[in-house]
Design brief:
Elements lengths: L1 H16 L6 H23 L4 H29 L5 H29 L5 H31 L10
Helix pairs in contact: 1-3, 2-3, 2-5
């Protein structure tokens, strides 16, 4: 499974770079593809009946995660002032670590509560939860693109 994830993580940005023009706007849109791949991977894993489907789901999860990680890092590099880059990356990494701990605690607790024959419920539930960041990110991208398209009007001051 680690190999499938690693291969997906390697291939994800390579695939999306074929349609990436290097603009922050395009990379934000490509992150939507990454989130969608992660959502699809959890649902595929939750309904998997054979090991190959699990491998495919983990591969797809690697694709999605690496797309998001790669382009979010590049967006930070392109938009943050040089003097603040270290702080921005520290904040990004801290947020990632905090969410990893929280999700691990929740999943560990759920695995203890759910009978073994229904563990796929946890996986499907994870898929359902990952729809939330996908929808939030789509909304954020729309808001940012709307703001970028609005002309800046400078009104003269004084009389």
């Amino acid at each position: 499974l680690y190999s499938a994830f690693g291969l997906g993580a390697f291939i994800g940005p390579i695939l999306t770079n074929t349609i990436n023009d290097g603009s922050v706007r395009q990379m934000r849109r490509l992150i939507i593809i990454g989130f969608a791949a992660m959502v699809a991977s959890w649902f595929l894993w939750g309904v998997s009946s054979i090991f190959f489907m699990v491998i495919l789901a983990v591969f797809l999860r690697g694709i999605g995660g690496s797309i998001n990680w790669t382009y979010s890092v590049v967006i930070i590099q392109k938009t943050a002032p040089d003097a603040k880059l270290g702080r921005m990356f520290a904040l990004d990494f801290a947020g990632f670590q905090i969410m990893t701990v929280i999700s691990t605690l929740i999943h560990g607790w759920l695995v203890d509560q759910v009978p073994i024959e229904h563990l796929n419920w946890i996986i499907l539930g994870t898929g359902a939860v990952t729809v939330v960041p996908l929808m939030v990110w789509i909304w954020i991208v729309k808001q940012l693109e709307t703001q970028e398209e609005m002309p800046v009007v400078i009104e003269p001051t004084g009389a």
